[in-house]
Amino acid sequence: MNKKFIPYGHQFIDKEDISKVVDVLSSDWLTQGPKIKEFEETLCKYTGAKYAVVVSSGTAALHIACLAAGIRQGDEVITSPITFVASANCVLYCGGKPIFADIQDDTINIDPKEIKKKISKKTKAIIPVHFAGHPCDLEEIYSIAKDNNLIIIEDACHALGAEYKGYKIGSCKFSDMTVFSFHPVKSITTGEGGAVLTNNEELYEKLLMLRAHGITKDKNKLWNKNEGDWWYEMHCLGFNYRITDFQCALGLSQLKKLDSFIQYRRKIVEIYNKELSKIDEIILPVERPYVKSSWHIYYIRLKNSKKRKEVFEFLREQNIGVQVHYIPVYLQPYYIKAFDYKEGCCPRAESYYKSTITIPLFVGLKKSEIKYIVDCIKRAIK
User: Fold this and answer.
1) Residues 6+ away with beta carbon under 8 Å from 241
2) How far is the C-alpha of 94 from the C-alpha of 239, rounded, in Å?
3) pTM for the full model?
4) Which of 177, 169, 170, 121 is closest to 149 using CA atoms?
5) Domain map of the chain by residue range?
6) Fold identical between 15-256 and 258-381?
7) CATH class of the domain comprising 15-256
8) What is the pLDDT of residue 297?
9) Buried b (16+ CB within 10 A) or exposed e, 112-127
10) pLDDT of the residue at 226
């Protein structure tokens, strides 16, 4: 047995990252300092978006994106069931109802044909999730949204660094807003953190206020323009979703290395694809020719789903930190109780869930560890 535990994902922090954080910790700014704006501007430069608002987590980013979109009581928002619960919970936070559309068999992304089936008079928005870093069929989803006057919020928490038809995910070419996460297992990290990107100035202004208690000091927006420089006004019910300056210093340092991080991940994927394609009992993930995945995770699917638990437990026993991404959201007890969801809602999503195992993929994973993982998978299945 390999004595060292190999997690499915892990951050990569080097001396340069640490130095940049120490510089800020040694400065006059800890919370709302100049690094925040610099990080936002650099995200825009990288993705091609006009505006970015960085916040305390990817979940916070999803929440204020839904609020900025005007999601409220009685609204429905269509999203994927194969995602972390935050992609749907953000709708609940606003009083809306998540509606789940089934996935595609190959990419595990939300199926545009299924989105069409779920649109009703109450539908206000679509939240497509770029699962595992593979972009959704954005052009088709964008066309559906335009035809039905719907807002698109891309959940790109897996997909910073990914590309769709030559456009960086985050450019908002085919959406109103894009949300990123900077959790330690994501493409880059700020510890915890997230961002909302948009090309719409009105949405941008809303997002800025929602991040910071609904407060503005912008003199052009103040109702009372006759007070002094101390004056501020609360214009909406916002939240304390602010990120810190030292987190953004880490984010800036990490963002410089993003392309090399993606390249490292792709090399691991090449090895996995080559070695695991020899095993008839499993199905490997795909990458369509018109996208560039960020390869947030690498998952295998067992053709005999009844063996999933046995294989999973064997790999864990070998100190390989395999995981499952994800349990269909509507099968969580809260959703069953709140909305009476049942098995059979999204058959392809349920079939995928029953067969999938996520194996380690992160910057810093060694060739010897990759070989060990592949060997253990072969042993587990045979």
Assistant:
1) 55, 56, 57, 60, 61, 63, 64, 210, 211, 212
2) 13
3) 0.97
4) 121
5) 15-256, 258-381
6) no
7) alpha beta
8) 98
9) bebbeebbeeebbbbb
10) 87
Contact of 125 with 153, CB cutoff 8 Å: yes
Q: 3-state SS string over the chain?
A: CCCCCEECCCCCCCHHHHHHHHHHHCCCCCCCCHHHHHHHHHHHHHHCCCEEEEECCHHHHHHHHHHHCCCCCCCEEEECCCCCCHHHHHHHHCCCEEEECCECCCCCCECHHHHHHHCCCCEEEEECECHHHCCCCHHHHHHHHHHCCCEEEEECCCCCCCEECCEECCCCCCCCEEEEECCCCCCCCCCCCEEEEECCHHHHHHHHHHHECCEECCCCCCCCCCCCCCCCEECCCCCECCCCHHHHHHHHHHHHCHHHHHHHHHHHHHHHHHHHCCCCCEECCCCCCCEECCCCCEEEEECCHHHHHHHHHHHHHCCEECECCCCCHHHCHHHHHHHCCCCCCCHHHHHHHHHEEEECCCCCCCHHHHHHHHHHHHHHHC
Round to whole Å and give the CA distance between 277 and 378.
Answer: 11
Q: Which residue has the tokens 């499952």?
A: 324
Confidence of residue 376 (pLDDT cuts 50, 70, 90): very high
Q: Which range (178-192, 220-234, 289-303, 310-324) has the least confidence? A: 220-234
User: Which residue type is seen at 257?
Assistant: K
Superfamily name and number for 258-381: Aspartate Aminotransferase, domain 1 (3.90.1150.10)
> Which tens digits make up the pLDDT trace of 114-158?
999 999 999 999 999 999 999 999 999 999 999 999 999 999 999
Q: Which two tokens stand for residue 373?
A: 């993982």
Mapping DSSP onto H, E and C, the string for 193-217 reads CEEEEECCHHHHHHHHHHHECCEEC
